[in-house]
Model the fold of this input.
Amino acid sequence: MQKLTYKTLASPLVHEIPKIKGSRFFASFFPVQSKEEIDYYITELNKKYYDATHNCYARRLGVQANQDLFGQRNLSAKQERANDDGEPTNTAGKPMLSVLTGAELFDCLVVVTRYFGGTLLGVGGLIQAYTQTTQAGVSASTVAYKEISTSLILSYSYDQLASVQYLYGKYSVKVIADHYADQITQTIAVNLAYLQALEQELRDRQITYTINSSCCSL
Done:
């Protein structure tokens, strides 16, 4: 069974397109893991480009896997947000967000900075400009693939160690933390694609476990 992964940015990127009727447009991309990180980047860019006409943004944070009626898992962002920063409603942030969604990028932030060039672009022109800027940046970016994993806490006896180690190898389990006392207690992460099969084998071996978190990225 293939591991379940999602696509994100490998590294930050700044990409500028040729001027559109005198206006400069450039996109700043960041891989992100939290709202605090997003707020930090937006604040810093607003300081850096304080003289810009607009600093519009779109972001997708978190990833969740939803299973349809046919058993297929579809990925969606836990949080999405777009901001026009003074441009006419839905002419900047929303088109930028649509590009990120279409590219299936998660845990990412894009800020498009505009320096007005003296000529109004109109609603259609603005949508095209912000879309084009974001698309060009996405095309120039390097992507990374991260696993969608679930965290579990296991508790088992020492005579079950060999059996548990076998399961770890079979399902590519990563041990996050462990504690050795009368029993072995471990926090592990397993790819979501393997979770159901691993749970069944743990039950078959009467190994106690609890799901620590529904989804995490590794």
